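assembly run, all chains below
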Amino acid sequence: METQFLFPYRYKRIGWFILIPFFALSLAYSITGQVYDLPFLTFTFQEEQNPSLFQEDSFLFSLHKENFTNEVLGIGLLVGLILTAFSKEKIEDERIRHLRLESLLWAVYCNPLLILVAIIFIYGGLFMTVMTYSMFTPLIFFILRFNWLLWKEKKQSIQILI
Amino acid sequence: MEREKAVYPNTDIMKNTIRIERAIKNITQAELADLVKVSRQTINAIESNKYIPSAVLALKIAKIFEKKVEDIFSLEEKDWQ
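ok done. output:
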Protein backbone atom coordinates (compact mmCIF):
# COMPACT_ATOMS: atom_id res chain seq x y z
CA MET A 1 0.00 0.00 0.00
CA GLU A 2 1.58 3.21 -1.14
CA THR A 3 1.45 6.17 1.21
CA GLN A 4 1.32 8.88 -1.40
CA PHE A 5 -2.06 10.13 -0.23
CA LEU A 6 -1.02 10.77 3.36
CA PHE A 7 -0.15 14.12 4.84
CA PRO A 8 3.34 14.69 6.24
CA TYR A 9 3.92 13.88 9.88
CA ARG A 10 3.72 17.46 11.17
CA TYR A 11 0.10 17.71 10.04
CA LYS A 12 -0.85 15.13 12.65
CA ARG A 13 -0.26 17.59 15.47
CA ILE A 14 -2.16 20.31 13.61
CA GLY A 15 -4.95 17.79 13.14
CA TRP A 16 -5.15 17.08 16.85
CA PHE A 17 -5.17 20.77 17.67
CA ILE A 18 -8.10 21.29 15.33
CA LEU A 19 -9.89 18.09 16.20
CA ILE A 20 -10.07 18.25 19.98
CA PRO A 21 -11.76 21.65 20.41
CA PHE A 22 -14.10 21.11 17.47
CA PHE A 23 -15.03 17.67 18.75
CA ALA A 24 -15.82 19.08 22.19
CA LEU A 25 -17.80 21.95 20.70
CA SER A 26 -19.71 19.67 18.35
CA LEU A 27 -20.52 17.32 21.19
CA ALA A 28 -21.80 20.23 23.25
CA TYR A 29 -23.75 21.53 20.28
CA SER A 30 -25.49 18.24 19.69
CA ILE A 31 -26.00 17.05 23.23
CA THR A 32 -27.51 20.19 24.73
CA GLY A 33 -31.16 20.25 24.00
CA GLN A 34 -31.05 23.88 23.06
CA VAL A 35 -29.01 24.56 20.06
CA TYR A 36 -26.86 27.61 20.55
CA ASP A 37 -26.10 29.57 17.47
CA LEU A 38 -23.34 32.08 17.48
CA PRO A 39 -25.04 35.33 16.55
CA PHE A 40 -22.27 36.63 14.34
CA LEU A 41 -22.63 33.61 12.11
CA THR A 42 -26.16 34.50 11.04
CA PHE A 43 -26.45 35.76 7.53
CA THR A 44 -29.44 36.90 5.61
CA PHE A 45 -30.15 35.98 2.05
CA GLN A 46 -32.53 37.55 -0.30
CA GLU A 47 -34.88 35.06 -1.83
CA GLU A 48 -36.39 36.10 -5.06
CA GLN A 49 -38.38 33.28 -6.45
CA ASN A 50 -39.20 30.43 -4.13
CA PRO A 51 -40.59 31.42 -0.76
CA SER A 52 -39.43 29.03 1.91
CA LEU A 53 -40.94 28.02 5.21
CA PHE A 54 -38.68 30.39 7.12
CA GLN A 55 -39.81 33.39 5.22
CA GLU A 56 -39.80 36.70 6.99
CA ASP A 57 -41.91 38.83 4.82
CA SER A 58 -41.46 42.46 4.66
CA PHE A 59 -43.51 44.33 2.26
CA LEU A 60 -41.16 44.55 -0.65
CA PHE A 61 -38.86 41.49 -0.57
CA SER A 62 -38.55 38.26 1.40
CA LEU A 63 -35.58 37.58 3.64
CA HIS A 64 -34.17 34.23 4.66
CA LYS A 65 -31.94 33.88 7.67
CA GLU A 66 -29.49 31.07 7.96
CA ASN A 67 -27.13 30.36 10.81
CA PHE A 68 -23.78 28.81 10.03
CA THR A 69 -22.62 27.59 13.44
CA ASN A 70 -23.35 23.96 12.71
CA GLU A 71 -21.68 24.23 9.31
CA VAL A 72 -18.55 25.70 10.82
CA LEU A 73 -18.49 23.03 13.49
CA GLY A 74 -18.97 20.27 10.95
CA ILE A 75 -16.26 21.58 8.66
CA GLY A 76 -13.83 22.02 11.54
CA LEU A 77 -14.54 18.55 12.84
CA LEU A 78 -14.11 16.93 9.45
CA VAL A 79 -10.91 18.81 8.65
CA GLY A 80 -9.52 17.86 12.05
CA LEU A 81 -10.51 14.23 11.57
CA ILE A 82 -9.01 14.03 8.08
CA LEU A 83 -5.73 15.61 9.12
CA THR A 84 -5.42 13.43 12.22
CA ALA A 85 -6.43 10.20 10.55
CA PHE A 86 -4.50 10.50 7.32
CA SER A 87 -1.15 11.87 8.40
CA LYS A 88 1.93 9.76 8.27
CA GLU A 89 3.50 8.35 11.35
CA LYS A 90 6.96 9.43 12.40
CA ILE A 91 8.48 6.29 10.86
CA GLU A 92 6.46 4.88 8.00
CA ASP A 93 7.28 1.24 7.48
CA GLU A 94 5.43 -1.81 6.25
CA ARG A 95 4.07 -2.81 9.64
CA ILE A 96 2.45 0.60 10.10
CA ARG A 97 0.93 0.31 6.63
CA HIS A 98 -0.43 -3.11 7.51
CA LEU A 99 -1.89 -1.81 10.80
CA ARG A 100 -3.40 1.20 9.08
CA LEU A 101 -5.09 -0.98 6.48
CA GLU A 102 -6.45 -3.27 9.17
CA SER A 103 -7.76 -0.33 11.19
CA LEU A 104 -9.45 1.13 8.13
CA LEU A 105 -11.16 -2.17 7.44
CA TRP A 106 -12.26 -2.43 11.05
CA ALA A 107 -13.67 1.11 11.05
CA VAL A 108 -15.56 0.58 7.81
CA TYR A 109 -16.89 -2.69 9.22
CA CYS A 110 -18.13 -1.10 12.44
CA ASN A 111 -19.96 1.83 10.94
CA PRO A 112 -22.61 -0.08 8.96
CA LEU A 113 -23.12 -2.39 11.93
CA LEU A 114 -23.79 0.63 14.11
CA ILE A 115 -26.19 2.05 11.53
CA LEU A 116 -27.94 -1.31 11.48
CA VAL A 117 -28.43 -1.18 15.22
CA ALA A 118 -29.65 2.41 14.93
CA ILE A 119 -32.16 1.50 12.23
CA ILE A 120 -33.62 -1.26 14.35
CA PHE A 121 -33.71 0.48 17.71
CA ILE A 122 -33.84 4.23 17.09
CA TYR A 123 -36.64 6.19 15.44
CA GLY A 124 -37.76 9.67 14.66
CA GLY A 125 -35.74 12.79 15.30
CA LEU A 126 -33.13 10.89 17.31
CA PHE A 127 -32.52 8.66 14.30
CA MET A 128 -31.73 11.72 12.20
CA THR A 129 -29.32 12.86 14.88
CA VAL A 130 -27.62 9.49 14.93
CA MET A 131 -27.36 9.54 11.15
CA THR A 132 -25.57 12.87 11.29
CA TYR A 133 -23.16 11.32 13.80
CA SER A 134 -22.57 8.46 11.36
CA MET A 135 -20.99 10.98 8.98
CA PHE A 136 -18.07 11.23 11.37
CA THR A 137 -17.91 7.85 13.05
CA PRO A 138 -15.85 5.99 10.39
CA LEU A 139 -12.94 8.37 10.84
CA ILE A 140 -13.39 8.45 14.61
CA PHE A 141 -13.36 4.65 14.78
CA PHE A 142 -10.29 4.49 12.57
CA ILE A 143 -8.37 6.99 14.70
CA LEU A 144 -9.32 5.17 17.90
CA ARG A 145 -8.49 1.71 16.58
CA PHE A 146 -5.22 2.65 14.89
CA ASN A 147 -3.87 4.54 17.90
CA TRP A 148 -5.01 1.81 20.26
CA LEU A 149 -3.12 -0.82 18.24
CA LEU A 150 0.00 1.35 18.26
CA TRP A 151 -0.29 1.98 22.00
CA LYS A 152 -0.79 -1.69 22.76
CA GLU A 153 2.29 -2.60 20.76
CA LYS A 154 4.34 0.12 22.36
CA LYS A 155 3.35 -1.06 25.82
CA GLN A 156 4.26 -4.67 24.99
CA SER A 157 7.56 -3.74 23.42
CA ILE A 158 8.58 -1.84 26.52
CA GLN A 159 7.92 -4.93 28.60
CA ILE A 160 9.83 -7.31 26.35
CA LEU A 161 12.72 -4.90 25.85
CA ILE A 162 16.06 -6.66 25.96
CA MET B 1 12.02 -31.40 17.26
CA GLU B 2 10.93 -29.72 20.48
CA ARG B 3 9.42 -26.28 20.17
CA GLU B 4 10.33 -23.53 22.59
CA LYS B 5 6.84 -22.52 23.55
CA ALA B 6 7.92 -20.68 26.66
CA VAL B 7 9.96 -18.04 24.91
CA TYR B 8 7.74 -16.79 22.07
CA PRO B 9 4.04 -16.07 22.47
CA ASN B 10 2.98 -17.36 19.07
CA THR B 11 4.92 -20.24 17.55
CA ASP B 12 2.37 -21.40 15.04
CA ILE B 13 3.30 -18.95 12.33
CA MET B 14 6.66 -18.45 10.66
CA LYS B 15 9.56 -18.72 13.10
CA ASN B 16 12.76 -16.74 12.85
CA THR B 17 16.14 -16.73 14.52
CA ILE B 18 16.71 -12.99 14.39
CA ARG B 19 17.24 -12.67 18.11
CA ILE B 20 20.02 -15.25 18.00
CA GLU B 21 21.60 -13.64 14.97
CA ARG B 22 21.49 -10.27 16.67
CA ALA B 23 23.26 -11.71 19.67
CA ILE B 24 25.90 -13.25 17.42
CA LYS B 25 26.50 -9.97 15.69
CA ASN B 26 26.02 -8.05 18.94
CA ILE B 27 23.64 -5.38 17.67
CA THR B 28 20.50 -4.06 19.32
CA GLN B 29 17.01 -4.00 17.86
CA ALA B 30 17.33 -0.27 17.27
CA GLU B 31 20.58 -0.67 15.34
CA LEU B 32 19.15 -3.44 13.19
CA ALA B 33 16.07 -1.31 12.59
CA ASP B 34 18.22 1.58 11.38
CA LEU B 35 20.16 -0.70 9.05
CA VAL B 36 17.04 -2.02 7.31
CA LYS B 37 15.22 1.31 7.58
CA VAL B 38 12.20 0.25 9.61
CA SER B 39 11.10 1.17 13.10
CA ARG B 40 12.33 -0.67 16.18
CA GLN B 41 8.78 -1.81 16.91
CA THR B 42 8.74 -3.65 13.62
CA ILE B 43 11.88 -5.63 14.49
CA ASN B 44 10.42 -6.36 17.91
CA ALA B 45 7.13 -7.48 16.36
CA ILE B 46 8.97 -9.77 13.91
CA GLU B 47 11.03 -11.34 16.69
CA SER B 48 7.92 -11.88 18.81
CA ASN B 49 6.23 -13.59 15.85
CA LYS B 50 3.54 -10.94 15.81
CA TYR B 51 4.31 -9.69 12.34
CA ILE B 52 5.47 -11.47 9.20
CA PRO B 53 7.87 -9.28 7.23
CA SER B 54 7.55 -8.71 3.53
CA ALA B 55 9.89 -10.50 1.15
CA VAL B 56 11.98 -7.38 0.68
CA LEU B 57 12.45 -6.87 4.40
CA ALA B 58 13.29 -10.54 4.96
CA LEU B 59 15.91 -10.39 2.21
CA LYS B 60 17.39 -7.22 3.68
CA ILE B 61 17.62 -8.77 7.15
CA ALA B 62 19.24 -11.90 5.75
CA LYS B 63 21.76 -9.80 3.88
CA ILE B 64 22.70 -7.89 7.02
CA PHE B 65 23.40 -11.15 8.83
CA GLU B 66 25.21 -12.53 5.74
CA LYS B 67 23.02 -15.60 5.71
CA LYS B 68 20.39 -17.04 3.44
CA VAL B 69 16.76 -16.19 4.07
CA GLU B 70 15.86 -19.86 4.69
CA ASP B 71 18.46 -20.02 7.46
CA ILE B 72 16.77 -17.23 9.39
CA PHE B 73 13.09 -17.68 8.59
CA SER B 74 11.33 -21.04 8.60
CA LEU B 75 7.81 -21.96 7.62
CA GLU B 76 5.44 -23.58 10.09
CA GLU B 77 2.33 -25.69 9.61
CA LYS B 78 -0.07 -22.82 10.08
CA ASP B 79 1.53 -20.87 7.25
CA TRP B 80 0.22 -23.48 4.86
CA GLN B 81 -3.38 -22.98 5.88
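Chain B touches chain A at residues 19, 29, 37-42, 44-45, 48, 50-51, 53-54, 57 (CB under 8 Å).

The radius of gyration of chain B is 12 Å.

not gonna interpret more than that til we talk
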